[in-house]
Please model this.
Amino acid sequence: MDKKLKNQKIKKYALIGVACLVVIGLIFGTSITSKTPGEVLDLQDQEVAEPAETEAAEPEEAIEEEVAEEEEEEPAETEDEEKADAEEAEEEKEEAQTEEEQTAQAPQNDNTDQSAVSEEQNNSSKEQTSSEEKKSEKKSEKKDSDKSKSEKKSDKKSEKKDSSDKSKDSKKSDKSKDSSKDKDKSKDKDKDKNKDKDKDKDKDKDKDTDKDKDKDKDKDKDKDSEPAVDDSKVTVYIQILCYTLSNDMSQLTNEAIRNYIPSNGVILGRTEYTCDKGATVYDVLSAVCRNKGVQLDANYKSAYGSIYVEGIGYLYEFDAGPQSGWMYSVNGVFPNYGCSSYTVANGDEIKWLYSCQGIGADL
Model:
């Protein structure tokens, strides 16, 4: 409650001070009309400032004194008193408003001077604002031009990039096309090479076939040129050897024939002989010995049922010991029957060998 009372009293005194200032302003305003508008404004500012300070100081001191006295007395006020104070404050506000209206209507000359000054100030401010606006417009225009330039540059750069990218892409595409063409060319070359190879192979095959044909023709010619083979004839080969005795002449018991024994043991070398089909080993031996001048002594023996050869080239059985004598082989095999009983075939190899020991054990 004490704080509220203090605040209300402070408000009252403040309103009183404002009213005093308004009255002082009216009083001094009539005396200033004879001066120039600039001097009037300066005087008004000085005079209004001084009384405002003094009057503002007086109510503040009065308020402080009254507040101190009221604090010492400490009166107890009721709610009805507060209401009354509020009503009085409202009435004072209304009075202050009426006084302000009167002061606003009183001096028209002062108002005209002040309006002229304010107009000049407004004009100067307008000029400043217009110049500032022009500057700002110029700045904005420069900014817009710079932006347009930068945009143009960026557009040019982008166009250059696009053109370069397009050229790169076109180059790449051209390169890829060229590479594909080269690949196709290489493939075609490979195909041509393969074709050439196939042609060469075919040529080689044709050559081979021609060669084979020529060979066949040559064979046919040879066959035609060769005399016809007589199936009634056979060709055989015959040898007469005594190397078992010539290698060891100490086995010889008949010294009279020493000079007939060849040192290499070959009485007749390998000799080809063609005879009639069905001829025997003995037939071949007797014919070759007759043709070559080799001595032969052979007789038929009923015990063997075949012709028995006793001596060839003056070398007889038992001339090199009791088991010595002549034996024959055909193709490396010694038959178990007489030579007149063995029929020869085409290409047979016949050998007559002299054995000194074991009836062929040393052969």
